[in-house]
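Structure tokens please, single chain.
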Amino acid sequence: MNPTWRSFLETAAGVFDTESSPILLSFGDAVGELQAADGQTILVPLTHLGQLDVSGEDAKSFLHSQFTSDINHLGAGQVQHSGWCTAKGRMQASFLAWRDGERYQLAISADLQEAAQKRLQMFILRSKVKLASLTDSTILLGLAGPLAAELLADAALPCPDAAMTSLQTDGVTVIRLDTQRFLVAAPDSAAAALWAKLSAKARPAGIPAWRWLDIQAGYPLVTLATKEEFVPQMADFEKIGGVSFHKGCYPGQEIVARTQYLGKVKRHLYRLSSPVALSAGDVLHSPDNPDQSCGMVMTAAPSPTGGYEGLGVVQSNYAGNVRLGALTGPEVKAVAVNP
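Here you go.
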């Protein structure tokens, strides 16, 4: 991540996971920040995300041919969830995608950005497309809570009216994710001033608070721990607009389409709750099916009320009896996100 931005956050009492990790754990009060996420207004540096810029006259057609969503119909001011699959239909990355004029911006899990950029570059061939990392030149902020729209106005930033739409001003993009959650992408040169304005009425919070909000929203982010583990439908990705079944070919398209039309998806996205810590990539088991695992955790966070919550892909037949890590592991409650 941008070292200047990291230093600024550390000066503001930000605590990172390790010296080399971009994951900002808290601003000194992890429990209080989680509790604030449940009903108050919080401001979160989204240091767990990286950002890619895709430009050139073939950018639209290139991304359309690679991703699961319909990039051809991604209009100005619109935002899409999108996935990138292997030839076997397994998601190797997921993105939040939006347009910046004729350019395309992609927010991706930071631990996948470098590898994804290098692999995407391999497929450009003679297309007129340029890929560039924006992780060091832009910052991503998450703003959530009842005062979020008011704070955007105080900072002279636009507030999109509808979910999954964006507005831009002076190089800053504001994306409305849902009713009370916004993502703000801004040049690093504007970071300190923007932070001062938005933190005037919003409580600074670490990544766990934002992940908890993602869990409540049912947003499954693919990370290094879950890379190539799921076809999109296992994570209910098509239900958040991340898959188009009316577009042309892309890597894994035949398998994704066949899975959809034959109705063979036995695993789906579940909200998980556990008395012990959950982590992305943790394997789930069921005593009702001792021969193989029944699922995997996608994302997790401490709960404001105690214990831990997460999103996981779980085999539906065994969702009523799930254990963490082993057949005799701690019991995990699983509730379908999209019943």
